[in-house]
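thread from #wetlab-drylab

HS: before we spend reagent money on co-crystallization trials with adenosine-5'-diphosphate, can we at least see a predicted complex? here's what I'd submit
DV: go for it
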Amino acid sequence: MTILAYDLGASSGRALLGRLVNNKIEVEEIHRFSNDPVQVGERLHWDVLRLYYEIKQGLVKAKQLKVEPQSIGIDTWAVDFGLIGSSGELLGNPYHYRDRHTDGMMEKVFTAIPQTDIFERTGIQFLSFNTIYQLAALQQNGSPLLRDAQHFLMIPDLLRYYLTGDMLNEFSNATTTQMFNPLTGDWDGELIERLGLNRSMFGQVVQPGADAGRIRPSVSAELGVGNIPVIAVAEHDTGSAVAAVPALQRPFAYLSCGTWSLMGTEVERPVINETAYRLNFTNEGGVDGTYRLLKNIMGLWIVQELKREWDQAGRGQSFAELVKLAGEAKPFTAFIDPDAAVFLPPGGMEARIRAYCEQTGQQLDRSPGAIVRCVLESLALKYRYVLELTEQLSEQQFNGLHMVGGGIQNKLLCQWTANAIGKPVWAGPVEGSAIGNMIVQWIARGELADIWEARKVIRDSFEVEHYEPAEQQAWQDAYGRFTQVTGL
Ligand code: ADP
Ligand code: LRH
């Protein structure tokens, strides 16, 4: 029996068919597309109709292969949303979380609601682009969207609504808004009202694995497919990615490595205390009542932006080529804190890295290899820093690190991560989110018992690459310089 998983990251989306054969997962990628944000004047938007078009293309490709999936699940990046008006139509183009309209919004919100109160109610880390600050920005700017909005749907809720006609809010993604209260298991009505937002926009929240309707007749007719059931998976891509980590048991540490690097550990209950608040860790909802105690690290976004800039300038090289050049460049010449706020918005990344190095008295060579090396080494060192914080906060020791996601194709980064943390790295599967999406569908369909059986099946189905730590002294010395330069 074949199922279909759509996984949309901030840089690209894909549709994969999955089959469970003799307790092994077979996957077939049938569609892949880039996800290109669109700048309109000062605003940065997602091209959501194009993304919906690509979702439909996935079904067309399945049909061309004579496959009618038994069910469908969609996961995407978190925090972003669309607002639906009384006619059932999307109001405006969804904003990209990197739009500058949230600049300074956190501080504004804290004047109305104390920061500690927000953390106690939600357990979510403070990121300038969380949904709560995006909505506050719309409100502050007197956006007509908020006046007319009847329903709030996050990006996967919206794409699923387009397919089925049913509006539901999925739990794992809802938690990333910083307006969901894990202790009550529902939207935090008081927080929403104190923000001056309309509580009734926020709909019923369903758990990963819930039945989320079927492809609606008009879509079936348009594409020539049946009324295929749609399952609400862990629709936050990181929730799906962590569900697919092939760990044997808890505790385990993971790094979901794509546009973002998400590092942490899976816990059974949210950890909402003074230390989590101080270290700015998050508790995002997951599969089977679990939570992801993790921290965002800026990730390969910085390399993506360098690549985009060089591509535009006609000096384009593939990720594989950039990694090769980084491997050939001189080690440990300069370091950045990848999480410095200057690296969040798009554009001018090389100049910003250069400015960071100048301000911290470091010399950075002009070659792409040197620049990419600086970013990748800094990421690996930041992973060590956050892994140690995760150990401190969770009061657990990890004997290695699981890495999943597109970033593990960068073998240099996997090896440097092992070197930096001084522990083994186990890398795989590369399509973590899509596979996590699939296993929730199989659990919902009764074909897998639970997350632990699913993780065993994943271990048996996919190659996991082992990286042993090397060059320990050099990385230890580098860590000292990194923490000094970055002030961590
Ligand atoms: P997202 O889901 O956030 O869009 P992915 O998980 O697809 O991101 O990972 C994208 C990242 O993977 C890119 O930023 C790039 O750094 C890395 N990557 C992709 N292909 C390769 C490759 N062939 N070699 C090295 N790195 C790669
Ligand atoms: C990764 C991700 C991450 C969020 C960010 C907005 O794709 O979902 O978990 O913090 O995008």
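DV: The radius of gyration is 22 Å.
HS: ok that's useful, forwarding to the group
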